[in-house]
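To: structure subgroup
Subject: Chain for Friday's discussion

All,

I'm putting the inputs and outputs inline so they're searchable in the archive.
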Amino acid sequence: MSKLPKMFIYSDTFLADTHDLSDCEFGCYCRLLMFNWGKNCEGLPNDIKRLQRITHSTEETIKLVLKEFFHLNDNKYQNKKQLAEFNKAIDFADKLSESGKLGAMRRWGGYSDPNNHPNSELMPTNTNTITNTKTKNIYSQKFEDFWKEFVLDKNDNRSTKLDSFNGWKKLSDEEQSTLGRKFLIYKDSKGNFYKALERFISKKIYLEISLEKNNVIEFDENEYKKQNHLDMFKKGVVLPSWSPQYIEELKQLAEG
């Protein structure tokens, strides 16, 4: 298989998913993605020493990035979203190639060069379009209604339907009934840096948001931010913007 000429990145989603990474972690993540794409997404080797040569990063940084964004399958590390985008790109390229071959077949009877066709002047042009209207809907009506109300109608182009559905169907009925409203207030609080719905579910961010009986949504953004910083501190990450007092506070929380 020849390499695809370019790797697609949805900048808003990418920045939202990586906003809590340090510069070193961000650079490591980008190098891993680009290396994997250049290898036709065959997967990253389960070899820290080799990954260090690829990324020029420390073992600690690589392990953090792998844990956050990759999963191990058949002794290879894969990024789920990247693999999905790669497969879509391959399918699209194959369809273009097949369409070109079929078009040549219909018009020139299998001759790749129309000028070499013995009856090129007599060959008719087929303008018919073949459309496959049979599609399998794997989504429940309840999820379709949810997706329309809280994603499509809100012009959310970041969330992925299939991944969101796979996470949503694992939730309890109560969690499903409140998820949409919680997701909207979370988006409002994060601005352009919100995580997509599938990550909102997988990271269990919805558990940090409560709905009062009067339907007024409460979300403590400062507490949520501090919890993210605490998770980073436990992994050995210290941001330059943190004051010594704040670091000491995180240290006490981590020890408690």
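Points worth raising on Friday:
The beta strands are 44-45, 71-73, 76-78, 210-211, 217-218.
The first strand starts at residue 44 and ends at 45.

D.
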